[in-house]
Design a protein that fits this description.
Blueprint: H1 21-37, H2 49-55, H3 67-73, H4 79-92, H5 96-125, H6 134-147, H7 152-155, H8 161-183, H9 187-206, H10 213-225, H11 230-235, H12 237-255, H13 262-282, H14 292-316, H15 335-354, H16 378-399, H17 401-415, H18 436-444, H19 453-478, H20 481-491, H21 497-508, H22 512-525, H23 530-542, H24 546-559, H25 564-576, H26 580-593, H27 598-610, H28 614-627, H29 632-644, H30 648-661, H31 667-678, H32 682-695, H33 700-712, H34 716-746, H35 750-780, H36 784-797, H37 802-814, H38 818-831, H39 836-848, H40 852-865, H41 870-883
Helix pairs in contact: 1-5, 1-6, 1-19, 4-5, 4-9, 5-6, 5-8, 6-18, 6-19, 8-9, 8-10, 9-13, 10-13, 10-17, 12-13, 12-14, 15-16, 16-17, 17-18, 20-21, 21-22, 22-23, 23-24, 24-25, 25-26, 26-27, 27-28, 27-29, 28-29, 29-30, 29-31, 30-31, 31-32, 31-33, 32-33, 33-34, 34-35, 35-36, 35-37, 36-37, ...
Length: about 900
């Protein structure tokens, strides 16, 4: 440091502050230990917000590497984070191992960048005699930060990758700023400033909390490069206020209630952060800025920006944000109450960080709200303490810059999430970034006290070992959703969230009775917990208790009219009960409340298909496809709808794109084969079916389609073999469902048995169709006796199928069983009285039995129904001759 000004000397030699090879080796050892600490969490499932933001977010479900899908994944409030999740899904699907590995790798990368920033900052702030210890201090701080149990909620909680990512770019942006300031004028400085800006934008794209980055850069400049001089700060007050107005506007846009598209808001936030960053980077570097004209311009600009901030804040109202993603009615809190509660929360974070026993850490916290400054009394004490903390940081900025900046950094990096914005009251991942510089300051404090290097090193190693053990213990809890929620329930028994989470864990483990129990327990604590009500409604829908499910969904809608998911579930129930018109209305209402929900458009398309409105269905499938280009179900449904309208080339194009992105599932291959058959490309269809059969030999739909293709080529015997295999596979599925259902019902678990009976019922119709295909093929191959056996088997599953009855009549006739043939044909006529062929078959059978009068009546009706069939006239003449 310069003795007269307190400013850091400019130096372009990176070797002076870059870590040595030995330091990197030691850091690598710490990183390996850290990876071992996180091994138990690698098998942890998706939990809590993971479900809504990853599992149910079809925008992130990339099925293939397409530019359209990648760009679509950016259309989220956190585009950079969303993009990484989309890539994870592309490679790993829903296997959480890959997601956890990426999180741990990012945490290690964040530790490395923090190490670089820490050493550079120590090089700037320490006296020349102490600079040689900068590497050791930075290494100690980085290792402690890396292994600290407080980091587990950011690393092991998959969705909190946002916190890790934004911290990486936050550290990197500040590092490049400091590098630029040390490098001096020239190309190197310009490159570093460009990297600083780029990292800042990436930080904001990772998490909205990065809006405070320009303030942190401003503070870094003031403390480390301007020696903490208040005069310098006062001269730039107007620009700091402009930056604050920009930050308020951007925060309102990014987290406020606003109907605008999140992507548009994110772009607006990027632009505002870029302006703020430009002010933070250029204004402090200006040497002459005291002119009256410049000051007047600055205050005028602040007036405009302040007015804009007020107007945007009033329009978007971030203070009134509801926990929509938590679905807890009444979770809004008076902004002032939340703000004064956060005073206590901030000191709670200090206690958790410096006493991080696993018994104190939890996924959720039950933290009482401060009703006033004196309720509880510690609120006022916390407020005064926070004020003293800020004042001390300003006082320390000149004499002890590391300590002063550490406090400023802590306050700034918590400022957005600990403000009036109605986010979750306590969230452990918020400790990830704020305590980093606090650790640097703490590690630097004893560095100059005595010699005792071995003692200090041993102390750091022992502390890291303790922290690693605590993190390992905590990660064992993160490894299992049931353990995690039981742990949370033990620590926060007064709120409903852990009970709802525990219920979800039991549903995942196929223990629905326990899941239902805990949902009711959650409602005892909070009758307005919409997640609990929704979970109960979905469970009752699954077990086909539609009346109860509908009551619960209607209750949700009364409590929250904009609950689009409840309306969508009602629509799905109507579809399952065979009421597509009512389902369509429910899906349309869901879309009105949530226009950006691709699942609702897809379901509405399915309803339109059932209503015989294919063009309307295609329109809805297209809308869903545009919202989520990699929404696999929509691609399949769209292809089916296009094929049904004889747009076979369009259907093949859609299926080809789906298969190129996700070639594993058999369904699109089967559908493609069926379309090829419709197009007359039977040989190509057979080739596709046989190649798919090599990978999926137990797919009844595949065997059925293959049988149809072979039959069309005159290979009836081979076709019959595949139809028989389809029937056998379906029989096994039916038997399994019925056996499990009966077993559960037999021990009094009727609710759990219902889904198995439901699936068995759905299989019955499919099995009937398989036996029908087999029987018709056998009949065409002149195996009438085998055909009768297969068709009678089909009749047990689909007793009202006209085609089965007609085929049975033909088979019985070929064997001379006119009485049985007559019975089958009479049933066929009863089912389809307007079918001329059925009337003709019955008439001829009656004639063979000598019942010429009845036969003539049936044949005349057949002639009336189909006057263009000359064979019916010949049959009538034959009967008339017999009657003579």
């Amino acid at each position: 440091m310069k003795a007269t000004t307190g400013q850091a000397e400019k130096c372009s030699n990176e070797s002076l502050w870059g870590p040595s090879q030995r330091e990197w080796i030691l850091f690598g050892i710490a990183a390996l230990v850290c990876f071992g600490v996180y091994l138990p969490s690698l098998k942890g499932p998706f939990v809590y917000d993971d479900i809504r933001f990853i599992v149910e977010n079809t925008r992130l479900h990339l099925a293939g590497l397409s530019l359209e899908g990648l760009l679509n994944s950016l259309k989220t409030p956190r585009p950079v984070t969303g993009f990484t999740f989309a890539l994870n899904h592309l490679v790993h699907g829903m296997d959480t191992l890959g997601y956890h590995l990426v999180n741990v790798a990012l945490h290690l990368a964040c530790g490395a960048i923090f190490f670089l920033l820490a050493k550079l900052t120590l090089f700037i702030s320490l006296a020349d005699a102490a600079k040689k210890r900068a590497g050791a201090i930075a290494l100690a701080a980085a290792c402690i930060w890396l292994l600290h149990p407080a980091a587990t909620s950011a690393v092991s909680y998959i969705v909190q990758r946002a916190t890790v990512l934004y911290s990486i770019f936050f550290f990197a942006s500040l590092y490049f700023y400091a590098w630029a300031r040390l490098a001096g004028p020239g190309t190197e400085r310009k490159k570093a400033l460009a990297a600083c800006m780029a990292c800042g934008l990436l930080a904001l794209g990772s998490k909205q909390s990065a809006l405070v980055l320009p303030f942190c850069i401003f503070a870094y400049e003031w403390v480390f490069f301007q020696g903490g001089r208040f005069r310098w700060l006062a001269e730039r007050l107007v620009w700091l206020l402009c930056l604050a107005a920009l930050g308020i506007t951007a925060s309102a846009l990014l987290v406020g209630v606003n109907p605008a598209d999140h992507f548009t808001l994110a772009l607006a936030g990027f632009a505002l952060l870029a302006l703020g960053g430009l002010a933070a980077l250029l204004v402090p570097a200006a040497e002459k800025h005291r002119g009256l004209a410049l000051q007047a311009f600055g205050w005028a600009l602040f007036g405009v920006l302040a007015l804009t901030a007020v107007l945007v804040w009033r329009q978007t109202d971030p203070g009134a944000v509801i926990f929509d993603y938590k679905n807890v009615l009444g979770s809004t809190l008076d902004p002032i109450k939340r703000l004064i509660t956060q005073w206590r929360v901030i000191f709670h974070y200090w206690s958790l960080y410096f006493f991080p026993a696993p018994s104190r850490l939890s996924l959720v916290h039950d933290f009482p709200v401060s009703e006033s400054l004196f309720d509880p009394p510690v609120t006022l004490v916390a407020g005064i303490g926070l004020l003293c903390l800020v004042a001390s940081s300003l006082a320390l900025a000149r004499r002890l810059p590391l300590a002063g900046f550490a406090i400023i950094w802590f306050v700034l990096t918590l400022a957005l999430e600990s403000s009036v914005i109605n986010l979750e009251m306590v969230a452990e991942q918020r400790m990830y970034l704020p305590f980093s510089f606090v650790l640097i300051a703490i590690c630097a404090a004893p560095a100059g006290i005595g010699r005792g290097r071995a003692v200090k090193t041993g102390g750091v190693v022992a502390l890291c070992a303790l922290l690693a053990f605590a993190s390992l213990s905590r990660n064992r809890v993160w490894a299992d959703s049931e353990k995690l929620w039981k742990d949370a329930l033990t620590k926060a028994p007064g709120i409903s969230g852990p009970l709802v989470g525990l219920a979800g864990a039991y549903f995942e483990k196929n223990l629905p009775v326990l899941g239902e129990h805990y949902l009711w327990e959650a409602l005892k604590i909070n009758p307005l917990d919409l997640d609990a009500i929704y979970g109960l409604a979905v469970y009752n829908k699954k077990i086909q208790n539609y009346d109860k499910a509908n009551t619960l969904f209607e209750l949700l809608i009364r409590l929250r009219p904009d609950h689009a998911l409840a309306r969508q579930q009602i629509g799905i129930m109507h579809m399952e009960e065979g009421r597509p018109e009512m389902a369509a209305r429910a899906f349309e209402e869901a879309i009105d409340r949530a226009p950006g929900l691709p699942e609702a458009h897809n379901n509405l398309g399915m309803a339109f298909m059932a209503l015989g409105k294919p063009w309307e269905a295609i329109d809805q499938f297209n809308k869903a496809f545009l919202m989520a280009p990699d929404f696999f179900d929509t691609e399949i449904n769209l292809a089916v709808a296009l094929a049904g309208q004889n747009r076979l080339e369009d259907a093949k194009k859609i299926l080809g794109a789906a298969l190129s992105k996700n070639p594993q599932p058999s369904q699109p291959h089967i559908l493609m084969g069926n379309i090829l058959m419709e197009s007359g490309q039977v040989e190509d269809a057979l080739e596709l079916f046989f190649s798919t059969l090599a990978k999926d030999r137990d797919n009844p739909s595949l065997h059925n389609s293959l049988g149809i293709a072979l039959n069309s080529q005159g290979l009836s015997v081979e076709a019959a073999g595949h139809f028989a295999q389809a029937a056998k596979l379906l029989e096994n599925r039916l038997s399994f469902g019925m056996d499990v259902g009966l077993a559960l019902a037999g021990v009094g678990r009727a609710q759990e048995a219902a889904p198995y009976f439901f699936r068995a019922q759905a299989t019955r119709h499919e099995l009937g169709a398989a036996y029908k295909n087999l029987g018709v093929t056998q009949l065409n191959a002149k195996f009438a006796e085998d055909a009768i056996m297969s068709l009678e088997q089909a009749l047990t599953f689909i007793p009202d199928d006209f085609e089965v009855l007609s085929s049975l009549g033909v088979a019985a006739t070929s064997l001379g069983g006119t009485e049985m043939a007559r019975i089958y044909f009479e049933q066929a006529v009863a089912l389809a009285p307007e079918n001329a062929q059925a009337r003709k078959n019955l008439g001829l059978t009656l004639a063979r039995q000598g019942l010429y009068g009845d036969a003539l009546a049936q044949l005349k009706e057949a002639a009336r129904l189909n006057p263009d069939d000359p064979s019916i006239g010949r049959d009538i003449n034959w009967v008339l001759l017999r009657m003579e």
